[in-house]
Amino acid sequence: MVSGTVLRSHSGGYLVYDADQNSVFQCTARGRLKKERVSLLTGDRVELDEINPEQKTAVITARFDRENTLSRPPLANVDQVIIVQAVHQPEWTPLLTDRYIVHFQLELAQALPIICFNKSDLAQEEELQGLRRIYEPLGYFVIIASAITGQGVGELAQVLADKVSVFAGQSGVGKSSLLNCIEPHLGLRVGRMEHEFGVGRHTTTSSELYRLGFGNFPEIGALQKASWVGDTPGFNLLELRHPLPPEVVWQFPELLPLAHDCKFIDCLHIVEHGCNVVANLDKVSPERYASYAAIVADSQSEYKLRKDTSQKLDSSMKSVGGAHGKEKSVPRLSGKYRQISRRREKQGQVEELELEDEEAEEETETPVDDSDLADNVE
Ligand code: GDP
Ligand code: ZN
User: Fold this and answer.
1) Closest residue by Cα to residue 182 from 208, 204, 153
2) Topology of 2-66 in CATH?
3) What residues does each domain of the chain span?
4) What is the pTM of this model?
5) Which helix (H) or strand (E) holds 143?
6) Atom in ligand 1 nearest the alpha carbon of residue 171
7) Which of 23, 215, 291, 345 is deepest in the core (most CB within 10 A)?
8) What is the 8-class DSSP label of residue 109?
9) Ligand 1 site residues, Cβ closer than 6 angstroms
10) b/e string for 95-115 if b means 16 or more Cβ within 10 A?
11) pLDDT tens per residue across span 125-140
């Protein structure tokens, strides 16, 4: 049996890498997969058949179980997320870092994100140590790096070896520069791949996996088996995921024990008189608490919005099935419902989530927006 990893999808097909033959195949998905509504994402491990070694084509016949699924960016089987932030240019803002942290802790619960502060050449040592002092005691692995001086790049390379990693961070923080410090030919190699397999520039918004060589770190390159980096189209900050307001505190390890001892049930730990978190703010970094409060506020407005929308949707009924006079009136699938099922999404239970949505879809004939979960097989 031949198996491979989906490197990306493009109109009408998928590029799949087969490690045994060290080659890339242009694949289509067997019709049965579509019938069974099996979605395929970049990073999915798949079974191949009808392999044509000359033309480098094959047919995807099955998808193996996923270890996890990220929705933004859309990727399967990710090992870790590296949040890259510049110390300056663009100026570091704690809130943005913390927003990324919360988002990726929700997206990939199995591994804490790694935080890489880049452009250390633009900062004073004291400033850099200050950043470490905020995040290291919370359990995050912090890398201080510079693509200019090379500081921390070896440490980053080590972290990437034999893993599937995603780089996150707003544009301009130096993600590509850091990767180029590790593998100067990464860009070149990608260009060659496009050319060799004649796929042309893709215009979809799906993610792409690159094999990471370690050109500048041959000692790591020699030991690693396969290291991959997910390149993503980037996503709007408005798409970052939020927990429900009372659950934001779960994402802040320093607040959680304080919240646990708060005497109020349903406390948001912001202004309540007598709240145990508010009473202990001297033990918490002011930047982190400010981020917490801002994310609770975001979450409140997001879920209020959802509620308003779902109330409107709930009130609008939809007719389905049967000839004239025989159709049933059923409520549309509400945003609220979908939110609840998404909340139940845990690593490893995504299949169930998709099924839920699909069943609901059949019941109500309401189109379900699953664009954040997967590219459906065409
Ligand atoms: P990306 O959008 O995150 O991939 O960022 P790029 O790698 O394109 O870098 C954006 C800009 O920052 C470029 O002009 C880089 O030369 C510059 N840059 C990247 N890393 C560093 C660094 O460590 N120090 C300094 N001073 N500039 C950097
Ligand atoms: Zn409280």
Assistant:
1) 153
2) OB fold (Dihydrolipoamide Acetyltransferase, E2P) (2.40.50)
3) 2-66, 71-239, 245-306
4) 0.79
5) strand 142-144
6) 2
7) 291
8) T
9) 118-119, 121-122, 146-148, 169, 171-177
10) bbbbbbbbbbbbbbeeebbbb
11) 999 999 999 999 999 9
